[in-house]
């Protein structure tokens, strides 16, 4: 199935295909339904239709136990119960993984293989992932809590599309011939950077893996990937498919573990040539310090955001409500570029607030494997408590709680879709990245004012603009200090579109041609010319 845009699949009412009702055995017939307005949470949960077969570390082409023998539990966010116990990597395991990656780069076939052959392996891998789409999607939903439709029809196909995209780039990476002022032949070589350390987050485990692993492999590098401790399962599943596709041992190594141990060991490792990290701004600062204090390895950072979504006075309010709802609540609000500051022109503000409240109250929250569910649980207890704390702070401020504001049920990490109006810039809910289903609505008067207010943040990852006026759109596009500006759309993540932030939202770009630069070294080669016919 071809990859589809996330927005086209998810920005309107979500309905799982009828086959999804038989994804697994239900624990009995649903009899009791908790209601948040008209949104239903079905208490009986579907048993995920997938087995967990890979829980060990991947080092040098083999699934192995951690050196310490330790494991940690990965939990089902629907219940807080253990799905599986996964090998817990630490410093010694990172050392083993880096050594394997170094040997594969210095002595193995991958960098010496023709770019066309590397491309063929990546394409074969993409075909295998596509073949196992439903199992991978079920595992992602089980470990993460996101709706199955989102995983099966948007994220896994996007993962496949990204690897096909980068497979296409593998044999198109080349240097230049540079004119010199004297009798010299000058050329540049674009060489693989070496061993890449990559640390990915829990909110989009598969997609973040593709954003990093795809370009690194296309450029001929080897990799040590540290997965998030909350969501280690899908990376291990697809890594097994990579070796089935013919990836040589040691090219891709995966260490499951925790940030202060495995993550810190990778960031500070003296034999890692490049580091890429996606996560919070605070952790990104620590990663950057560790990289600088070790071997000054270059670092790509994709960090937090507090993105403005600006609805102008000429907006179709019904359409704007739906798009703003999607921009914030998508993926349970656990999205770094979520449109978490909704600025609405004063002429349409009251109408927007009433309709945004009604839309939030219609949002269906429940078991993400169930048909019709739009929102699953938050990732874990820590994030769940953090979101509820911000909601309490919003209640205690002068903001108006329009709807939501509480947990749903007594089991798992489900939170009511929440809308605050009359939000002011000095409130914590306006300044901080909540990373949850909490929409904050602000009122503005004119374009100059809203540009200044939208930019008054330490973040600069993304922004959204909703207007019918091309001049207004152009003014906002150039005025907003953000790495991506979506006009009358949101969360369009095609493989070729670069993504990254201004200010404290990060450094560098992922996806598209720009991401290749993260994994290449440029070498200038200068040779004298004897009696050249031309210079």
Automatic annotation (TrEMBL):
Record-annotated Aldehyde dehydrogenase domain positions: 63-525
Name the keywords, alphabetized: Oxidoreductase
Residues the record marks as active site: 302
Alphabetical list of Gene3D superfamilies matching this protein? Aldehyde Dehydrogenase, Chain A, domain 1 (3.40.605.10), Aldehyde Dehydrogenase, Chain A, domain 2 (3.40.309.10)
| UniProt-listed Pfam families | Aldedh (PF00171)
What family is this? Belongs to the aldehyde dehydrogenase family.
**Protein name in UniProt:** Aldehyde dehydrogenase domain-containing protein
Q: Which organism is it from?
A: Solanum tuberosum
